[in-house]
Amino acid sequence: MIVIPGFKNKSVGVFGLGVSGLATCEALVASGARVFTWDESARAREKTTGTEYLSEHPKNWPWQELASVVVSPGVPLTHPKPHAIVRKAKAENIPVYGDTELFALAINAMPKAQRPRIVTITGSNGKSTTTALIGHILKETGHDVYVGGNIGQAVLSLPAPDNDAIYVLEMSSFQLDITNSLRANAAVFLNLTPDHIDRHGDVAGYLAAKKRIFLNQEKEDVSVICVDDDYTQGICVELIAAADRKVTPVSAQGVLGSGVFVLDGQLHYNLDGKTCLAGDLTGAHSLRGLHNHQNAAAALAVCIHFNVSPALVIRAAERFESLAHRMEEVGRVGKVSFVNDSKATNADAAAHALNSYDDIYWIAGGNAKDGGVEAIVDGLKNVRGAYLIGEAAERFEEQLGNKVHCYQCGDLKSAIAYAQKDAAASDHLAPVVLLSPACASFDQFKNFLERGNCFKELVNKMAQENGEAA
């Protein structure tokens, strides 16, 4: 647990009692603060029973005494309009923080020579895999590493800092919006596609939030920027021109004169005027596809910054296991493989999976994002059928047009059954039933985790009924 200096005997409000909110409460109590809490969910409020931070409505908080208000990342700051708790805090001139800002305050209170190193990762897609991959490589090469943030453990529940540790933190745009003083020794920006427009107002607002990952970096720090889209190319040019830190461009789509890049599955780096081969990524089975090659390139750039040998990076990457719900191979029935990519909640993320397998029987649908699947209708050469579910099903069929045969399945169970039947009857040698929804899950599931777990359970049951192990 992280203890935050300077909060002893201070009063703090915490709004939102999810995983990060509860970790914040525990850290603040351990820091000697008086903590006042609330969540709009009664079930969440019940978790404070018997604690030192028993929930009470914000109207009863001692607003004149509060030193700060800590909100969960999902609480709107500006769009579509500021949440009432944010408006109240601003009216009372009380600073609004997120849990990552409290972590930054704890690190900044340490003598500079004793601070741990920090790696932060953001992007519209791939940030969880890249975070886990960097953490895995650094652990495999003997470093004392803690991984968390928007993945796994909440940042304030990670072990206390020491100067030998490296914190590897996934950062969402929501978290970055409420983080002001965190300095990353290595900051990674993977990519940007329009998303979360309802929260940020427009693409410019979303981009501005993501760019905050580079705040407070110093001359010896590195900014790792994938330059495979127009947005990130522009940021890379901007940071190189500023000349106030190291900048390492990375790409999975072509040769770079300086930086890290992947060409035909081979990972190369040129950081001192000479291009060298780090190794072959085709042996890293959990890093299939161009998007994962981009993730691997970013990981190599970070690890080289921390003096890890490129050869060791490749060896560790080969032992990396893919994350749950991210192109996760979950079972087989006969010749048909099943892949759970429930985390693909937008079209761009789904496009990566659709380019990574041959002979795909694609399950898609749910709560569609802006644009639906229009952006990928010309990238379906490997798709043999689209099995559509949820609210977006009819809209997706209209958008896909005559590009691929569509089947209206209604729910996930039906889609799996129809897709498996067609895949098994096909003349393809190794067909794949792929859940890569290109949608949020909230029409039929609580979140993408529940959707992915449901997929796995249904596949496991199908395998058992066919006398096979999933």
Rg from alpha-carbon coordinates: 23 Å
Structural class: alpha/beta
Low-confidence stretches: none
**What is the count of distinct domains?**
3
> DSSP strand (E) fraction?
15-25%
Q: What's the helix count?
A: 15
Summarize the structure.
The chain is 33% helix and 22% strand.
Give the SSE map.
Layout: E1 11-15, H1 19-30, E2 34-38, H2 42-46, E3 66-71, H3 84-91, E4 96-97, H4 99-108, E5 117-122, H5 127-140, E6 144-149, E7 165-170, H6 173-177, E8 186-189, H7 197-200, H8 203-211, E9 222-226, H9 230-242, E10 246-251, E11 259-263, E12 266-270, E13 276-280, H10 290-305, H11 310-318, E14 328-333, E15 336-340, H12 347-354, E16 360-365, E17 367-368, E18 383-389, H13 393-400, E19 406-410, H14 412-425, E20 432-435, E21 439-440, H15 448-465
Parallel strand pairs: 1-2, 1-3, 3-4, 5-7, 5-8, 6-7, 8-9, 9-10, 10-11, 15-20, 16-18, 16-20, 18-19
Antiparallel strand pairs: 11-12, 12-13, 14-15, 17-21
Helix pairs in contact: 5-10, 5-11, 10-11
